[in-house]
From TrEMBL:
Species classification: Bacteria, Pseudomonadati, Pseudomonadota, Gammaproteobacteria, Thiotrichales
Protein name: PhoH family protein
Database matches in InterPro entries: P-loop_NTPase, PhoH, PhoH2-like, PIN_dom
Family stated for the protein in its record: Belongs to the PhoH family.
Any one GO molecular function term: ATP binding
Every PIN domain range: 9-150
């Protein structure tokens, strides 16, 4: 391998990085990338199957093949420019480094207790050999494997996590969907404020300046006792248009017998019941009412208002404990064990005093015809028209899976994402890389989307105490 002692950094990519994000090859700007032969072997072993990882491996192989395209052995030894891919591929072409392969054995001494026949240890050995051969270059192993980073530090090789898939540096920076107004807000902004009524709603218009960080459909709640709460409908040229929120805490405005128990739930119901909002994301810990509020709004708009002709519910099927194995039956029957939250909340919504058993059974049968349980595995290629789609446990989805699901929405369809980023069951996702965090951040500035983070638990005093103290 012909490589010069250049000031540019040299990144060794572990297999799991490319399995996670094939575009990682193009995320290191002007710096060079090195792929050990072990990584290529592991990519070859992981290319079969229909899983997300297998698809990423095949995409990685196609990208590498395009980069190598008709290159001679001498060119490969000298490093191939990552800009060899044709500009029409849609990749950023500016100031990319080179891609190097292990064209000759790279051998370095490992501690005796690390067997060199293991793939991970061979990658460490390659990294140490590169560090010895090019002492002036900053050689870094990039891996998503925590143990690999620990072992790398132990043998003296610098290693880092792959950060490019992070939506935010910290989950605490995630958009909450609401903001508390300071107590003197109306004293400072009231002079140029004007208000009017239109279609039964009260609107306000006020100057906020061009540096205002408010987002469309963000909720504003007064810090004083005035009880003022409004939704930002439009921000243009330093002027914000607010709409006074409907009060769903009142029994006269109940949705399928459900009323909001706090201001956060009231904001959520305003989003869920707004036909001009096509996408809603609800984050919150267990017991904040995400599923119950969503189902109540879905039934109201599907059965009573006829805005949608069907409710579709899906979720990622990742077990919390040991997998119970193969489930017999149809698609809906296989999904039923995963939909306990749906069944529990339907019981609450259909529970009415004075109803006979026959009337309750008839209601359940009616609901079963309008609520469909679908598996995510069969969503690709479909288009849903005039549907109310609920994606539960969305924190277990990757950004790519989230894109696949949301792009199924056709005309007149509303998509709701529910999840709790502090309860991620997928071993490959974190709070900052989950598809739920990704979509909240990407959709926050779109005028037809809304988000709210629910914090106050309403399930029971037992559940609230457990959530706070366990």
């Amino acid at each position: 391998m012909a490589m010069t002692d250049e000031p540019r950094r040299l990144f060794i990519l572990d297999t799991n990085v490319l399995m996670h994000d094939p575009m990682a090859l193009f995320q290191f700007e002007e710096h060079d990338i090195y792929l050990p032969m072990t990584v290529l072997e592991e990519l070859d072993a992981g290319k079969k199957g229909m899983s997300e990882v297998s698809r990423n491996v095949r995409e990685t192989n196609r990208l590498i093949d395009q980069i190598i395209n008709n290159a001679s052995f001498e060119e490969i030894q000298n490093g191939l420019s990552l800009e060899r891919i044709h500009p029409n591929s849609g990749l950023e072409q500016l100031h990319l480094g080179k891609l190097f392969f292990e064209t000759e054995p790279m051998v370095a001494k490992l501690p005796a207790h690390l067997p060199s026949h293991k793939a991970d240890n061979h990658i460490l050995q390659t990294g140490l050999a590169l560090k010895e051969e090019y002492p002036s270059r900053n050689v870094t192993l990039v891996t998503k494997d925590i143990n690999m980073r620990i072992k790398s530090s132990a043998v003296g090789l610098h290693s880092e996590d792959y950060y490019n898939d992070r939506v935010l540096e910290d989950a605490d920076l995630l958009y909450t969907g609401w903001e508390e107004l300071e107590e003197n807000f109306f004293e400072t902004h009231g002079q140029n404020m004007r208000s009017w009524q239109e279609d039964g709603s009260t609107f306000y218009e006020l100057e906020v300046g061009h540096d205002c960080k408010w987002q469309p459909n963000e909720a504003l709640v007064s810090a004083n006792d005035s009880g003022f709460s409004a939704m930002i409908r439009k921000i243009s040229n330093g002027v914000a248009t607010l709409e006074y929120m409907r009060d769903y805490t009142s029994p006269t405005h109940s949705i399928w017998g459900i009323t909001a128990r706090n201001s956060e739930q009231n904001i959520a119901l305003n989003h869920l019941m707004d036909p001009n909002i096509d996408f809603v994301s609800l984050l919150g810990v267990a017991g904040t009412g995400k599923t119950l509020l969503t189902l109540a709004a879905a039934l109201e708009q599907t059965l009573d208002q006829n805005l949608y002709n069907e409710i579709i519910m899906t979720r990622a099927t990742i077990p919390v404990g040991e997998d119970i194995g193969f489930l017999p039956g149809t698609e809906e029957e296989k999904m039923t064990p995963w939909m306990g939250a749906l069944m529990d909340n339907l019981e609450v919504l259909t529970e009415s005093d004075g109803y006979t058993d026959w009337e309750k059974e008839s209601t359940q049968e009616l609901l079963s015809k309008r609520i469909k349980i679908k598996s995510m595995n069969f969503m690709r290629g479909r288009t849903f028209q005039k549907k109310f789609i609920i994606i539960d446990e969305a924190q277990n989805l990757t950004p790519k899976q989230m894109k696949t699901l949301v792009t199924r929405a056709g005309e007149g369809t509303k998509v709701i994402c529910l999840g709790n980023i502090s309860q991620i069951d997928s071993p490959y996702l974190t709070e900052t890389t989950t598809g739920l965090t990704y979509i909240v951040d990407r959709f926050k500035s779109w005028e037809h989307s809304a988000h709210i983070t629910l914090q106050q638990g309403e399930r029971s005093r037992l559940a609230e105490f457990a959530s706070d103290n366990l």
